[in-house]
């Protein structure tokens, strides 16, 4: 009997414990479901926010690329505008220069017309006068050239004459003090050189020239033959202090006084 009572008590205790456990579990289920739902909603919201952020980032990158392209286009257009502005400025300067020249030409033409009117000459008389003037100028130029030629010949002849008939101190051919030239050809075998100065510069036969390089005397030469634009000279014995080369400078050894 006691065993049965103990068994019944044990069964009732088990049922009570099971009921209590069921009661506790049944009260926690809604909380668990609510927590699960809250976590699910939070995750959904997080995914949505992430998706939105990615979309916004993509759009921002696209806007940035477009902005950079717009900036590059703007710079290119600015460069073109500056080039056009420079071209327009240059064109304006050219036009201003041409306008100034045209105004000067117009003033000159106006002055010539005024002078022509003041002269009282007819057009045919003006043409004839201009022709005569040009012919006279050509004759004057010819006479001047011939006079210069005869003058050079007189200087050359007089210089050579002084060498033989002048005083001891004057027995040198005087050359123009400003005469200056250079050696263009050298013949070391026969000791003669060609100078780039001739009759047109005042070179005279038997004139002596000093040859120098970098301010140092190299030799002395004496002119033996004179042509219009060049001379041939021999190196004076005893005056060869070094080898004469092309490009050496030559100046008068006995310059005429100014």
**Overall number of structural domains:** 2
* Strand neighbour order, sheet with most strands: 1-2-5-4-3-6
What's the total count of β strands?
Answer: 6
| Gap between N and C termini | 171 Å
Q: Given the structure, what is the number of helices?
A: 2
Largest sheet: 6 strands, antiparallel, barrel
Taking all residues together, what is the mean pLDDT?
78
Q: What is the H/E string?
A: HHEEEEEE
Q: Strand fraction band?
A: 5-15%
Decide which structural class fits the backbone. alpha+beta
- What quaternary form is this? single chain
Shape: elongated
Range of helix content? 55-70%
Q: Low-confidence segments, ≥5 residues, pLDDT <50?
A: none
Rg (C-alpha, Å): 58 Å
Structural overview:
The chain has 258 residues and is an alpha+beta fold. It folds into two domains: 1-109; 174-252, Beta Barrel (Thrombin, subunit H), CATH 2.40.10. The chain has two helices and six strands; from the N terminus they run ααββββββ. The protein has helices at residues 2-119, 123-165, and strands at residues 181-187, 192-195, 208-213, 216-226, 231-235, 249-252. A six-stranded antiparallel β-barrel has the order 1-2-5-4-3-6. A hairpin with a 4-residue loop joins β4 (216-226) and β5. The longest helix has 118 residues, at 2-119. The radius of gyration is 58 Å and the shape is elongated. It starts with a helix and ends in a 6-residue tail after the last strand. The mean pLDDT is 78.
